[in-house]
Amino acid sequence: MDATPPHCLPTDLVCLSHLRWDFVYQRPQHLMTRFAEHRRVFFVEEPVFEAIPAPRMDVSRRSDTVVVVVPSLPWGTSPEEAIPIQKAMLEELFEIYSVERPTFWYYTAMAMAFTSDFDAHRVVYDCMDELAAFKGAPPEHLAYERDLISRADHVFTGGHSLYEAKKALHPSVHPFPSSIDVDHFRAAREALPVPADERGIPGPRVGFYGVIDERADLDLIAGIARLRRDWQLIMIGPVVKIDPDLLPRADNIHYLGMKSYKDLPAHLANWDLAIMPFALNESTQFISPTKTPEYLAAGKPVVSTPIRDVVQPYGQEGLVRIAATPEEFVREAERAMHERKTDRDWLDRVDAFLSQSSWDLTWGRMAELEMLGAIEDVSHRVLSTPSGAS
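Below the sequence we write its predicted structure tokens.
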């Protein structure tokens, strides 16, 4: 790692996540695997509902220090009934693993419903997305988020737009935009074998990977495919929260499903252009796409819709081209692919920009903030101990 970790992180870490560990590999996994180098991490997911007679807690390991916890609840369990069940499961987990006063690390404020009574050493809210604006968000999310922010020692945000929205709500709010594992994606700059499911697809290949949901501009994707029928649009990722039948269909649009994190460089290596065709709506107002620096580390030209955290800094730095309509997207894509072949300085500028960020550096700074709070807690207790007290 290129960051210097704190020498003694004080407690176990319990991560409450709306994302599943074995889903798309992104911010929670990047950070938790780094924390797990120094402490135990319990990754607690949202419940799954199954045809089972009674609740069950499924516990499995992803490493010696990463434990994934999935509550399985019977079909028909109401949200109100789920709260005490999840609380009891967490109490059981803590007893089995001898967890005492852990750091609670929240990605979803909804977990406050069953964790607010626990004695936490530290509370961190890593607000990677404005989940209240997502499709199907529970109406009580905002109330739980207010409660979480009031209890948190630190609030981290997944980008600068979210930071601007949250900075007045807490005295310790810190922006941590999407970061990058440069070495992993830089491998895509070399000639890698074409993945099996792309071998029969001719070029030019224009690719996207990520979750395909209400944040995708389906009309834009259809328009690009219609305007440039010689381009092959490669769409990688799971389809969630939208009807798959609504996806645009054409001979030059290819949905390849979900891929593992380790396989992404091989796909990127064989693309001519990477795209971010996000819709401009409530669910994308505060996003800071992790794929932006990943695409760039792979050495691919990138075109994106005008997402605020892409326009600034990537668009303003001349690293990503910005377009809103199918016509603009095609024009900027043609310019980007030409630039990649002719502008020898472009890749140097990309590398200089990416050198300022990494998941190691992001994790290190987060850990320092948590550690600082822990040291302050200890110092306060020492200073508050009456003379002669043990």
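Confidence is low (pLDDT under 50) at residues 1-7, 375-390.
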